[in-house]
Each structure stands twice: as structure tokens, then as C-alpha cells.
Amino acid sequence: MDGFITLIQSQLFESIVLPTLYRLDLMSFDEEAFDGLYWIIVGVLQIGLTYALLRPLEAFFPLERWATRRATRVDILYTWLAKMGLLNLVFFVMLQPVFDRLKSALTMHGIPSLEPEAFWPDIAAHPLLLFLLYVVVLDFAGYWYHRWEHRLGIWWELHAVHHSQRDMSFWTEDRNHVLDAMLQAVFFSTIALGIGVSPGQYVFLMAWTNFLQNLQHANVRLVFPRWLAALTVSPAFHRRHHAIGYGHEGRQNGCNFGVLLPWWDMLFGTAAWDDAPEPTGIRDQLPTPLGCGRDYGSGFWSQQFAALDRIARRLKGARGWAYGRASLADEAHRAPGRSVAHLLNQPVGTQRNEGASDAR
Ligand SMILES: [Zn+2]
Ligand SMILES: [Zn+2]
């Protein structure tokens, strides 16, 4: 596989990238362009593979039936931007020299590093175990990152871009505010470098996490056996996180924050195993009187700017730096933990028939 990627990489580099760099007088960036091209090809292959595996599942075993897939289009754009933007990798590579310097400074002063080898020297002889340990540590960090995205009002407004998709499909995974995506890239790169993850491992880890998250968002009737659902976050588990009335409104502002492992939700009391399908989205998107029909934007730019606008309003004092459960405009209609499906006359699995779907 690696040989195949390298072959495409050198062919594309010689036929397209190099002549372009030459024309633009940017030949000094040829090495960076060559390396970046490798990851762009990996991204394209990843999107292709994910599409080939998950799109048929959504077509043949859909959980929600939509009249049109128009609402998912913007998420496709997010996916391409995320994969081609190489944010995760850029920050990892950028921060690496900083961490190398930090590591030698710590060693010089006799301060032990945070790498697992410092606590358990023998683990280096068990690469698989070490890798699994990295996964667990990063996933633990991911759980808390996600929980705080829901907890802090301003941060929630960024994360709301992700949650405002009401026709959730496997493409939804990458639908994030650009600022949040950057913050995430810095956060995870920092932890990964801090515990000694190598660039190759990091890329593999990100690709694998990404694929599983695509699966978690897929609009597909896929029930994991109990043992598997307890081992890794299932589509039903994550769908409940997106469910109006449950995912970000219930006790402690929601449930099922886990990224790959549901263990942290089990440990910290935020796991909800009820997998009855519920409408997904944010309550204030619902038409009145259930919500206030808030518009989170339908295109990339409108969604990005709408989030900044909501943040500006919070900062102006409308909602303050509130520990907030989301932007529930009409408190009177809030009923955490209660199904809105029957109120919408929308048993999931049938076609949506409320006014808001007219535009789709
Ligand atoms: Zn969330
Ligand atoms: Zn999600």
C-alpha cells in the first residue's frame, strides 16, 4: 500500500506540483510540498474507502429515510476540507521540534517525562501494548475535551456546528467549526507528543479514529452486539449523543461523550444505552412551539459566521460566559431526557414531515 501511494506521489509531484511551484517561484518549498502530497493522497484514499464502505450501508439499511440527501452536501465539503487541510498533521509536525527541545531540557534537569517508558521501561518491548496505551490516553483526553465543548457556552457555540446537522450521515463526522478543528488539532498533537507518539503512529491512529467516527455518524440500522458496544462507541451510542432532549440537555448537559471507548461515560456516569432512535439536532432548531426555529446556517460560510455571531451575542452579555447547556432559546420548552419524536410526528425511520424539511 505504501509503495502504491509513493508511486502516485512521485508521479503527481513531477507532473503537476513541481511545474506549478516552478511557475510560482516557490521551489524552496519543494520538500514540504512533496511530504504534504503524501498525506493528501492518504486523505483522498481514506475518503474513497469510507465512501465505498459506508455509502452502500446508508443506501440499503437507512435508519432515517430522507426525501433528499441535499442537507448532507455541506458535510461532504467539511470532510474534504478536513482531510485536505491536514490540520492534525501540520500541528503535530510543527510542535514536534518544540517537544524535542522540551524533552531534552527535562532530561537535563532530571525531570521524568510523561512517556509510558518512563514509568514502565519494559513496555517498549511490547509495541502493540504501547500503542493501545496511547489510544486509551488520547481517548480519555478526547472524552473530556468533548465534555467541555458541551459545558462552556462559547465553546458549545463552535461545537453546535457539528450538532446542528439534523440529517446525520457518515459525512457529519468532519462537520466542525474551523476554530474548534484547530483547537482540537493543537490539543491532541500536544498530548500525543507529550506521551511520545511517533508521527507514523499518530497518522495511523487519526485515520482509524476517523473511520470509526464516520461509522458512528452513519445513517444506518446497525446494531452492535452488547460486547462490541461496550468495547467501542457504536452508531446507536453516538446517535443518542446527537438526540434532541438527550445528547446535550440531560444530566450534566448530556450523555455519551466518548470518542472511541464508551468506558469514560460508564466511569463518569454519562453513559446512556437506550438506543431507540430519536430525532437528531439541537432543540432550538425545532419549529415553534418546540423550539424557536433557530437557523444555524445551511452552507459552510453561513454556519461558520453564525457560530461567531452567537459567540459575540454571548460575550455581549445576552448569555454571558455561561456554563451552558447549549443555546436553548426558549427555556419553557426544555424538557431534558424526553422524546420529541412524537411531538414532531416523526417516528425515526419514516420520512420527516415538519415544515423545516421543506428546504431539503
Ligand atoms: Zn457533542
Ligand atoms: Zn458527532
Which helices and strands appear, and what pairs or packs with what?
Elements lengths: L1 H22 L6 H31 L12 H13 L1 H22 L7 H4 L7 H25 L1 H11 L14 H17 L4 H19 L8 H6 L3 H8 L20 H5 L32 H16 L45
Helix pairs in contact: 1-2, 2-3, 4-8, 4-9, 6-7, 6-8, 7-13, 9-11
This protein binds zinc ion (2 copies).
Give short descriptive properties of this protein.
55% helix; mainly alpha; 360 residues; globular; binds zinc ion; single chain; disordered C terminus; 0% strand
Structure description:
With 360 residues, this protein is an all-alpha fold. Helix content is 55%, strand content 0%. The chain has 13 helices and no strands. The longest helix has 31 residues. The two termini are 40 Å apart. 32% of the residues are buried. The C terminus is likely disordered. The protein binds zinc ion (ZN) (2 copies).
Principal-axis shape equals globular
Bound molecules: zinc ion
* Fraction of residues in helix: 55-70%
pLDDT average, as an integer?
A: 82
The biggest beta sheet, please? none
Instruction: Give the percentage of residues in beta strands.
Output: under 5%
Distance between the first and last residues' Cα: 40 Å
Gyration radius, rounded = 22 Å
One letter per element, helices H and strands E, the order comes to HHHHHHHHHHHHH
Helix run count: 13
Low-confidence stretches: 320-334, 349-360
The assigned structural class equals mainly alpha
**How many beta-strand segments?**
0
